[in-house]
Design brief:
636 residues, Phosphoenolpyruvate Carboxykinase, domain 1, alpha+beta, 7-stranded mixed beta sheet
Amino acid sequence: MSVTATGPLTDVSLAPEVRAALEASPRLVVPTTREELYRLALGPDGGPTFTVEYDVDGTMVPEATVTRCRNGVAVNYPEDYMRRRDPDCMRIADDLPTDKPRYRDTFGAEFDPVRSETLAWLADQELVVVPFKAGGPTFGYPSLAIVPLNSAFFALTLVDLQGWVTFDEIGPYTPRSILYVAPPFRHTHFGGRQVVVHNRSRELHEVWAYNLYPGPSAKKGVFSVLLDIGEQEGWLTAHASSVRVTTPYENETVIMHEGASGGGKSEMCQEIRREDDGRILVGTNVVRDEPYHITLGETSSLAPVTDDMTLCHPSVQKGNGKLVVADAEAGWFVRVDNMTSYGEDPAFERAVIQPREPVLFLSIDGVPDATALPWEHTLDSNGKRCPNPRVVIPRSFVKNVICEPKEVDVRTFGVRMPLCTREKPSYGIMGMMHLIPPSLAWVWRLIAPRGDKNPSIGESKDVRKALKHGGMVAEGVGSYWPFSTGTKVAAANLLLRQIVENDRTRYVLTPNQHIGAYKVGFSAEWLTREYLARRGGGRIQPEQLTPARCSLFGYRPREIKLDGQQIRPTLLQPEYQSQVGIEAYDEGAEILTGFFRAELEQFLTEDLDPLGRRIIEVVMNGGGVEEYEALTPMYV
């Protein structure tokens, strides 16, 4: 259906040049239902395949293909580069405070002429316009997206993530954010690179997306909007998942898990993986090729609360010392790279293979009018599986999902750890679980170290080189820093205030991938979740803890028992693994400590909260865990 900018958009307050572009469009479509938008995503003929292409200097360049499947649409990109988020795609076009690269500094010119060119190009296109609420239907801020009609799958991704809403439901409004999509500009203006330009004012956050992979714009671009609003209003959107864990004895604990990309956020909401015989593989000693199993008869039940963007909005806080969280999304952008065959996650498989309504797949090998399967990933040009296949799944499709805000009992932080042995020492020395004072929890979140083999984004050459040689890379404040358009110190102060105000919270570190010489995948995280829930909100008495050898790890449990089975002590103290030893452990601790000190220097400015300065000084001076605890006592 074609409309005019004076129809459904009459009561939307828009800048004159934006309204003029919409009015000039040869066809303007405002879908009235999600079903209508889904049909638009299949192209003018409704499938079975449709190529999204654009005129670039007289040549039609394909950007994506859309395949009609029985259970949804499979979107694929011809370029490997477009199948994951470029970590260096954000550019800031305004003059508000920022630590991110400004457009003028990168491209040697102001953004305004390109903004005008983009609006002129959109004015010549058939367009689909959809309203959405940045931050989800309940707490979100009324916003707008303007997308070329032949890229309707992009608009579908956006509204599936943020929730379907109509102009009538929102009523007259001034958009708090507007997302514009102009794919061919990456070729004509930006050398084929993904570029997302943020143009902020105190009233409006514009996101100009010059690529069709939704990760940096429809997904993380909306995250940027929420962080910008929160920085102005004094609250945070955390980069975290959260889950209510109910033990076999019906004790409930809400755990919020943070960490850099690949740090285990999605996995926190997944069931513990079992072998065919029902045992749980805790890990495999890589040197001896020796697996280590335990047996748990019954594990806790899981009810996901949030998946990735966790809203800590002031309207839901109770002021009782516990952080209250709600989901900032109505749908989840689930990475399925760890699904390689049938039966690995039956509940999720059932939800997307036989969905209540068709869903959207990215980098999944969809066959026309066949069922798209989440473990059949598109192959990259090197013949290997794309490391970033995705499924956009509505929250309502997720088993046992919780829709109301919940109080957080424990905040865990996950870190991808490399293999550490005597022969090849590394920082992969974190034990299975560490309890840390709030001040140390803040330090870990300031840096958000990102380990090797991160599947979600394309790495720069410098990052790949650092990781290849056993180094570390900081993802930055809260691990949401890659999406923030503001300043690091402002974000650090907000995060510290949140941690200090919610002093009835326990903080835990947990590794994934490796513990010393053991390959553990995500089993340490899953078993830590189980143990904390069985302890009743993560309650562990001080006499059950002892300082870790590396003070950045705070305390470690003296022992961990699950169903009467004691976890191997060497998984709690990797320095006593025969393949690691004290010397390799200490070398790894030096790598970690040196990296932390180097990264923390940038925060020591006049704008940093005085408490934050004192905490960082403890790190710089090699202080012990008791010094961190003196600054911010642990909740027991």
